[in-house]
Amino acid sequence: MSSAQFKKIALAYSGGLDTSIIIPWLKEHYGAAAIVAVVADVGQGDDFGQVRAKALRTGATEVVVADLVEEFLTGYVWPTLKAGAVYDHKYLLGTSFARPIIAKKQVEVALATGCDALAHGCTGKGNDQVRFELTYKAFAPQLAVIAPWREWDIRSREDAIAYAQAHQVPIEQTVKKIYSRDQNIWHISHEGGALEDPALEAPEDVWMLTRSLADAPDQPEYITIGFAAGVPVSLDGAAMGPVALLTRLNELAGRHGIGRIDLVENRFVGMKSRGAYETPGGTLLLTALRELEALTLDRDTAFMKQHLALDYARLVYNGLWFTPQREALDAFVNQAQQQTTGEVKLRLHKGHALVAGRRSPYSLFSSELASFTMNEQYEQRDAAGFINCIGLPIATRTRLHQQRATQRHGG
């Protein structure tokens, strides 16, 4: 354990189990240091008055609550959505792209208040330690980093609960209700407890934002989402700001049981983990945007964008948000999405969001070309030429095999 002494430490504070016990732990091991608890509002719906009071009651000398919800959507969520980035086939990156904005604000507060160290509550097994600390390096590499989970003797959430109880730190978790959750306006994640066994179905009491299919409405509901250059801007023809729009989509999708995933994912640190995620409104947005792109992107641009989406997802998941690579990928995505404007109608029903129509003033779909009715815009005889050119290597290889077979049989 480090014996370094600091005058002031900025702690990324949520009021959850891990960060709640970190304040008394810092007081024990860095007693001379003042502690600034930095609370980031990214739409998790907490009572920040209670969070502030709890931090002060457990030893923080100062609490800064930052409203980052709209910046989070416009600067982090929308770019990732436009890129079509999905990690491990399913994960819509809700925790991954929240960490950079939280860590960036933490650094800003640390520099403004004269802190000489940064602290976080990420475990030494997880991805979040990477996301926080790479952001620290991007903005204040001179500040020391304190990662208690890599130093203290606590080895499990049961240990953390016992420590909290011993130090009179109020927490919601118990050994019977031990899920680790992370929530923001985009999603909520669930880990731990029964979820640690991937052979078991996620218990129904895990889910918080989405109804079970049994409780979802029997009748479908139709909605229309509008986009401008790949950014969601309206619902059912009414213009809406980002926060109001996503909030409403979360309600609609949640009511119909849309947005649940159960994922065994590949962590950046090299191990596999199992988590349950709910991203109701985000699932609707990604589904609708892909359908709109089917109209507005030409074939080769769409193929390239799908390829780069994998790189974008891995980059975001691995905490490399503040890098030239991400900026370069954004430049491609923004150019590709310039004409991704229009509306997509979705049918919401029993866990599914199905396309029910799409239209765009920049649609590349031509009914005259696609129709089986013959017309003058497409000369069918031309197809023979390009098929012959494309098929030339195939035909040449087949002829060679035929010649060799003939020679072997003495023909």
In short:
This protein is of the alpha/beta class and 411 residues long. It has helices spanning 17-29, 48-57, 69-83, 98-112, 128-139, 157-166, 242-255, 280-296, 299-317, 324-336, 367-370, 382-408; strands at 8-12, 34-41, 62-67, 117-119, 144-146, 180-183, 188-191, 221-228, 231-235, 238-239, 260-266, 272-278, 342-349, 352-359.
Walk me through what this model shows.
- The chain is built from twelve helices and 14 strands.
- By secondary structure, the chain is α/β, with parallel strands linked by helices.
- It folds into two domains: 8-79 and 94-176, HUPs (Rossmann fold); 183-367, Argininosuccinate synthetase, chain A, domain 2, CATH 3.90.1260.10.
- The strands form three sheets. Strands 3-2-1-4-5 form a five-stranded parallel β-sheet, sandwiched between helices. A five-stranded antiparallel β-sheet has the order 10-9-8-13-14.
- Helix 1 (17-29) crosses helix 6 (157-166), helix 7 (242-255) crosses helix 8 and helix 9 runs antiparallel to helix 10 (324-336).
- The chain is globular.
